[in-house]
Amino acid sequence: MSFLRTFKVFSGVAVLSYPIINRSNTLYLLDDEDKKPIYSKKPQTEEGDKDPPTRLELYVKKCREYVSGKVGEAKSESQKLVSKLHEYENEAINSVNSVRGQNESFLPGAVYVSVAAMAGSIIFRKSNILVRFCSPLVFGTTATYFAFPDTFKNVYSKLSESYPVLADVSKYIDTTRSSSRELYNDLNSSLEQKVHDARVQAIKLLTSDPTPKNDQKSEQSEDNQSQPSTSNTDSKPN
C-alpha cells in the first residue's frame, strides 16, 4: 500500500509540473528565435532597392551571352582543326620519310623532274588540251623514274598495296614484258641464224667461182697457143 501511495504522489507532481516546464521551453525558444546576432545585416528599405533591368539591358545581356558562347565554340572548333592539321602534317612527314630513298639527294632530281615536265608542256604546246595536260605528267613521271628510282619503286609499292588494281596492272605489264622479250630473243636468234646461213652460202659461192674462171682462162690460153702453131704449119709448105 505504501508503494501505491508513493507512486500516486509522484505521478500527481509530474502532471502538475508539466505545463510549467512546457511553458518555460516555449518561452525560451521564442526568446531564442527573436534574438538576433550583433553582426546581422540590416534589412534594406524600399528606398535602397535597385531598379529592375530594362528591356534593352536584358537584350544586351542575351546578346553578350550568345556572342560569348559562339566565340567559345569557334575557339574549340579552331583548336580541333589545328590539331587535325597537325596530325595530317605528321602523317605526311612520316609517309614521305618511309617512301624517300636513303641515298637520293633531293635538289638535282627535283630540278630534272621540273625541267622534264616543262619540256613536255613546251613540246606539245600546239596540240589539243588533253595532250597538253597529259604530257607534263608523262614526262615528269618518266624523269622521276630515272632521277628517284628507289622513291619511285617505294611509291608504286605503296599504291599497289592501297589499290589492288595497280598490282594487277603491274603483273600484266610484267607478263607482257617477259613475253615480248622472249619473242624478241626468238626473232633475234632466228634472224641471226638466217644471216649466218646466208653468209655461209655467200662465202661458198665466192670461194667456188674462181676455179671455173681459172679453168676457162687456162683453156682460152691453150687455144690461143694452139692457133699460132697451126698457122705456122700452114705457112711452111709454101
Which secondary structure elements does this structure contain, and how are they paired or packed?
Layout: H1 2-34, H2 55-99, H3 106-123, H4 129-147, H5 149-162, H6 164-208, H7 210-235
Helix pairs in contact: 3-4, 4-5, 5-6
Describe the fold and architecture.
It is a single chain. This protein is mostly helical. Among the domains are: 56-93; 104-162, no CATH class; 179-217. It has seven helices and no strands. Helix 3 packs antiparallel against helix 4. The longest helix has 45 residues, at 55-99. Mean pLDDT is 75; it is low at 17-34 and 228-238. Residues 223-238 have a biased composition (Polar residues). Residues 202-238 are annotated as: Disordered. Pfam families: ApoO. Keywords: Membrane, Mitochondrion, Mitochondrion inner membrane. InterPro entries: MIC26/MIC27 (IPR019166), Mic26_fungi (IPR033181).
